[in-house]
Amino acid sequence: MAKENIFDIKRYNRNILVPEINKEGQRQLFKARVLVCGAGGLASTVIANLASLGIRYIGIIDDDKVELSNLNRQYIHTISYLDKPKVLSAKNWIENYNKDVEIQTFQTRLDDNNYNDVVKNYDIVVDCFDSFESKFLLNDISLKMQKPLIHAGVTEFSGQVMTIIPNKSACLRCIFPDANLDACVAKGVVSPAVSLIASVQSMEILKLIINKGSLLTNKILSIDGLNARFKVLNVKKNSACECNF
Ligand SMILES: [Zn+2]
User: Which of 190, 202, 212, 239 is 20 to 30 A from residue 69's alpha carbon, by CA?
Assistant: First the structure.
């Protein structure tokens, strides 16, 4: 028996009442497999949204441990998980919230040797990493593996979101061909900015799965939380980009 027949569909009633979702969309959500890359601030909101939507297959990759300074924004982690792996803390949060979800954790850094095993079983990849270097690596891996990537970044009050569809839309390297990946100065960041940006990411994941609405492809949504400004910047795929496969 398919698992979707045995759990309590009432839980998802308010999803199903949305005409764009309906029972068919909910079935798509149940089937979708989403890999969350990083288990920090962006991931806290993305994971909470995925589990709420009823996405049953969630993968999480992260090699960090929970630190006290994470807790100004990474709300799925609690004091009892200090110094413990973030992937275990995230898994524990999901298990307490929604037992329908099957969670696969990878307590490691994504790299050129392990990416195939980590990414291959997922339909959508979500960039919740926190460094330029890991974001560009994930960009390249997602394109190589032909997986849609929902990119986001956030610092202080501001951030941006962009959806990347392999072979169809602009990637990070199309837009920032000369990015300095060593730039790694720790900056502050506030929780409302992180959860706002990650909610836009989550909305992109939802639309991609139910195939409704319009995505942030060839567009960057730039959010300036301090001044309550939301801007959509049009960007173009570069036919000479090194990420064309
Ligand atoms: Zn590109």
Answer: 202
Q: In whole angstroms, what is the distance from residue 118 CA to residue 138 CA?
A: 12
pLDDT digits (tens, 9 = 90+) for 102-111: 999 999 999 9
Task: For each of the domains in the chain, give its residue range(s) and CATH number, in order of start.
Answer: 9-234 (3.40.50.720)
Q: What is the pLDDT of residues 115-151, one digit of tens each?
A: 999 999 999 999 999 999 999 999 999 999 999 999 9
Task: Tell how far the Cα of 172 is from the centroid of ligand 1, in angstroms.
Answer: 6
CA of 75 relative to ligand 1 center, distance in Å: 33
Q: Which two three-digit tokens encode residue 212?
A: 């409704």
Query: Which pair of tokens denotes residue 67?
Result: 């630190």
- Could you tell me the distance, in angstroms and rounded to a whole number, from the CA of residue 39 to the centre of ligand 1? 26
Give the predicted TM-score (pTM) of the model.
Answer: 0.95
